[in-house]
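Our collaborator T.R. sent over the components below with a one-line note: 'Predict the complex.' Nothing else. No constraints on interfaces, no templates requested, no preferences about which chain binds where. So this is a plain run: every listed entity goes in together, and whatever single assembly comes back becomes the starting point for the next discussion.
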Amino acid sequence: MSPGSTSARLLISCADRPGIVAAVAGFLRDAGANIVHSDQHSTDPEGGRFFMRMEFVLPLAEGERGAFERAFARDVGDPLGLDWRVWYVADRKRMGILVSRTDHCLLDLLWRWRRGEFEADVVAVASNHPDLRADVDAFALPYHHVPVDRADKAPAEARLLELLGGNVDVVVLARYMQILSGHFLDRLGVPVINIHHSFLPAFAGAGAYEKAKDRGVKLIGATAHYVTEELDAGPIIEQDVIRVSHRDTPARLARLGSDIERTVLARAVGWHCEDRVLVHDRTTVVF
Amino acid sequence: MSPGSTSARLLISCADRPGIVAAVAGFLRDAGANIVHSDQHSTDPEGGRFFMRMEFVLPLAEGERGAFERAFARDVGDPLGLDWRVWYVADRKRMGILVSRTDHCLLDLLWRWRRGEFEADVVAVASNHPDLRADVDAFALPYHHVPVDRADKAPAEARLLELLGGNVDVVVLARYMQILSGHFLDRLGVPVINIHHSFLPAFAGAGAYEKAKDRGVKLIGATAHYVTEELDAGPIIEQDVIRVSHRDTPARLARLGSDIERTVLARAVGWHCEDRVLVHDRTTVVF
Amino acid sequence: MSPGSTSARLLISCADRPGIVAAVAGFLRDAGANIVHSDQHSTDPEGGRFFMRMEFVLPLAEGERGAFERAFARDVGDPLGLDWRVWYVADRKRMGILVSRTDHCLLDLLWRWRRGEFEADVVAVASNHPDLRADVDAFALPYHHVPVDRADKAPAEARLLELLGGNVDVVVLARYMQILSGHFLDRLGVPVINIHHSFLPAFAGAGAYEKAKDRGVKLIGATAHYVTEELDAGPIIEQDVIRVSHRDTPARLARLGSDIERTVLARAVGWHCEDRVLVHDRTTVVF
Amino acid sequence: MSPGSTSARLLISCADRPGIVAAVAGFLRDAGANIVHSDQHSTDPEGGRFFMRMEFVLPLAEGERGAFERAFARDVGDPLGLDWRVWYVADRKRMGILVSRTDHCLLDLLWRWRRGEFEADVVAVASNHPDLRADVDAFALPYHHVPVDRADKAPAEARLLELLGGNVDVVVLARYMQILSGHFLDRLGVPVINIHHSFLPAFAGAGAYEKAKDRGVKLIGATAHYVTEELDAGPIIEQDVIRVSHRDTPARLARLGSDIERTVLARAVGWHCEDRVLVHDRTTVVF
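Returned assembly:
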């Protein structure tokens, strides 16, 4: 990439109609951009919804972004009725992590962040328990202990909003065993990604490995999804499974499952940070 | 295997206690048997349930089976309080197949049977539709068309009992889209294996692929289970999954899923016929 | 799709440079086309190779195809130096199948063809053995027995050229245990897809399952690839694996492997017929 | 487990013959043992090799082990010509780790060790580079920097022998990029487990991900194996793969592969420490 060039992604969602690709690609060509990757999906060419992610490189100083986007709105976005947004690769996302006592998802995220696997910077970790402070300290990151009072969760949520509100672009629940209120999610205003320890919609809620043992399933899974007010019902980003047998106790299922949980969560977080995930009702399009 | 030698399997289920393996293996050694394979499982060494499958070869004429089993009962089974059964490999299981209109599971079973993959002989195919007659004819097997009257299913079940009762050791539902009554299952008196087109307990009942699309799962699955009176709730024998994406329509999910359905069903049927599956409450032990 | 509308795919391969997508999408929009799917890949945005597959629907009578393609060449293909080709969905590919004695890949292809899974019509099956004639007869397809003389394979290849030359768009080797000469491949002039019973490049050549057993691998695989003159070295289209254990004999590996062989081959054939596979040196881009 | 009871495993390898299970199980019953798990494998009931792993609990003080083993040798081992060994669960294995600059396998092993996933204690980490000292310090483990002189590797191997010889029961190469000499392996005298970044036997040696990219494989893998003098040719303990595509650069393959490397290595190390792996020529039996 030459100096002065900007790497960016354009995400589009709209009613499907002919001419969208031509209009967008023509605009980008005229702006001097080179399209590096492009993905598109239509739920139905006639009357469906159209989704697109275009990754491109163009000569654009940081101060020229506003003009570039205004021109796009005027020439393409408004005439075609697009729901669109440009993400600049240089604007790394700020990630907050919430965790309870279990370390596997948290450590995996922190390792990957340190290795540079995510297009994001972890800015803070908060927990309702003090247990994982030393692990987080080793990464030179702030660790906020925010105890949750079962009788009244509002003060804890208020404290989390103070810590995270406006400071993060995404929050990751790395086995955070508290249900977040709709009020909190609204106020936070950024996507929240959760990892659930089952192949949803099977075994939603607590005790997923015990339920799996009791039902005698032959595979266990993990699901990363965006958090909505309804428990474990948000749009699924990624899932995976691992084979188990009658020999495995619930404790052994939890150990095997933890390997799946961390890889599924890492994939979901990585894709989210690369702007690959578009929400469509209660499902996702992952480019 | 020398002439006059018999290949057999001993299946045991009992309260766990010390000395079971020694007693069984000692008895078999004294009977001149060579243990070829042995698997065991204890749900808990203290107070749990013990399961065992021993495959052995011994010099035993067909007429001596009764005496052999009586001796085992007297010396081992009764003293130790075992729930046990001997299966002789030479007694190939007789398999009945029920199917509706979809051919993939049926054809896969018939083809594997023809190749000799199952320790079983298919003896009859019955269907509530006439569609698959020619396919079954090509395997030189009887095809019974038993229409089902939605208003009164009893006559159809009675006809199926006439056809299958006493003539089969196992019945396989190869995408048979009728719910069998508890009365029918009781009267039939042999295990019935069903293939369900989802990763149970997710998406039980009809329309599993539509439900999967609607929920936006990233993997679809299939589940082979023993049929009980409660729909899609019997002990699971085998499951598997395949990755899907936002691009896949319900019709495409059904096509991808059909490949999983047939392999999962074939594995379950194969294991059942080799006496590898022991039921434990509403789960299975698969050796 | 309205009457008079044509579904087609444009495949492009060229040196990467800015403006390709805009030029192609602009041309198609002006021709009245609606882009239904689009995939692209660049090996390197600077100095790399660019690949694209665009699926579109446009109002075009069959007699207007020549003019449409000449206009594309004049306005886009020639100016940008593209290597391109348009495939019309209505022009179903004609498929020839070569097989030896093993039935699993052949039957799986024929079942899928009968179910309508492939955008292709099987037109002939040829074999160096007579064994599978009845199976092919059941699908009302011609079965050509073309014995191969080990001392001189030329007459058999000449006979195959007579049968297939000019009559097929793709040939599938469904476990055909004869090596085809470079001369034959040249004269045939259409892509040939082979299924090899290992995870290439491991265990090329004959006896792959014996080699796998001897080496003690924990997974066995299958590989579908385009055939080139060099044995088992052509561009790989698809691969998959299945877990095995020390218990599995080479015969059991062959049985387990046969399930992988047929699904891997079916995926490769399906993708080829949908024009999803572009060759790049000795690798493939699969859209 | 009651106080005074001992958990142990008996591993047996011998020419197959009738009566082995009965003799072993009878001896253990008479010794007051309860068999908790038992696995056996015969390469061929007639003339093959027999392998067994029996896990049992028996009342045995530490000082009585010698007498117990002498009695077993006298009554069972010697008469039947068994190659056998008893491992006591209380005798946790001492593990040494060698690593170069890459952290993912090392960190994963240390983290699992801290969680208690291995029946082993990590006692030392040695590296030919200083880079990972801080990471190892965080686990309160000694980190030995043992530089390797390319022109003469003998001094480094001598230093490693000083550090590890007699102090470890197993050595794990967690991406240690130096070839160990046969002389070193002999002198070390304990099993050495390596993780190789490909699906062996494909892509042995250096540059596996570049080779995989060049060959265009659709899956990449990792292989954990015991180290022998011949590079990447020792008995394979475990393998796994992950799907990749034409989009993935060698750097991306390395990142995706690192997730497989660490899980494959962790499984192999865990199984080894639980005495589940028996070597058979250049393959393994994994119970």
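Summary for T.R.: Chain B has two domains: 5-88, 93-286.
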